[in-house]
Amino acid sequence: MSDFRVALRQQDSINVLELKGYLDAHTAPKLEEALQNLLSTSRYNIVINCRDLSYISSAGLGVFMAFIEEVRKNNGDIKLTNMSPKVYNVFDLLGFPLLYEIFKEEHEAVTRFFDKGKATPITPR
């Protein structure tokens, strides 16, 4: 089984999930559980830090799609940060930059929750 970990921490009123390892069909339930725990406690401002995410499959991408509607329905958002070029290319290939704001650095995503004009997301190529 692939190695994957999700760590949660709070920065201001933002919930930061740090992903590490391989996010695939075998490990996606760990991310699903972490996101479900946030939603069940009405925490809808979420930053996903992908700094240590080395691989993502379509099953991993599906987790993001499964939760975004409920998050946004509750006036929250999921913002993505710190992707390696390899991981970003997977998101970009499937059009995720049109659906999610993706930032180079975590602090930019956190700032975006408080001031819509300060941080600029990465734009698709």
* CATH architecture label: 2-Layer Sandwich
Oligomer: single chain
Give the helices and strands as they follow along the chain. Answer: EEHEHEHHEH
Q: What helical percentage do the residues reach?
A: 40-55%
The number of helical segments is 5
Can you describe this structure?
- The protein has five helices and five strands.
- By secondary structure, it is of the alpha/beta class.
- The protein has one domain: Transcription Regulator spoIIAA (2-Layer Sandwich).
- 41% of the residues lie in helices and 30% in strands.
- The longest helix has 16 residues.
- The radius of gyration is 13 Å and the shape is globular.
- A hairpin with a 2-residue loop joins strand 1 and strand 2.
- Helix 1 runs parallel beside helix 2.
Short description:
The protein contains 5 helices and 5 strands. With 125 residues, it is of the alpha/beta class. It has a single domain, classed as Transcription Regulator spoIIAA (2-Layer Sandwich), CATH 3.30.750.
Fold topology:
Layout: E1 4-11, E2 14-23, H1 28-40, E3 45-56, H2 58-73, E4 77-81, H3 85-93, H4 96-99, E5 102-103, H5 106-114
Parallel strand pairs: 2-3, 3-4, 4-5
Antiparallel strand pairs: 1-2
Features:
125 residues, Transcription Regulator spoIIAA, five-stranded mixed β-sheet, 5 helices, 5 strands, 41% helix
